[in-house]
Amino acid sequence: MKIIIDTNILLSALIKDSVTRKILIEAEWQFFYPQMSFHEVRKHKDLVLDKSGMKNEEYIQVLNQLFQNIELIPEESIYPSLKEANDIIGKIDPDDAVFLAAALGIPNSLIWSDDSDFDKQLKVKILKTKDVVKLFYV
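Request: output the structure for the sequence above.
Response:
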């Protein structure tokens, strides 16, 4: 299974040693994250450190551990689908267009997000965390 993860899923896995982190580390699925959205992870670093209680070194270790199983999607792979994605979801939430474009560019991929904005489009299948957990434990 090919899954594009949104930033909130990634931040959740960073903040807490939870089932989300376990799935991202242990599942034998292909996880992807748009490289052009990595600034969001950096932007929320202090929030993650505060909520998780981690020190900087621990944060870097967890982030590196997660990205051993998450492939960064280069910007040039997203650009060809960005206009279509913007047309579909850009008016609802422009930040979500990158994730939709990533999914449009990777055949047979899904988006893992608990963001209800994605429910307003029908182009790409969306998995909520509860769906991913069920699939992981089958």
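The helical segments are 7-15, 19-26, 38-43, 45-52, 56-66, 75-89, 97-105, 129-136.
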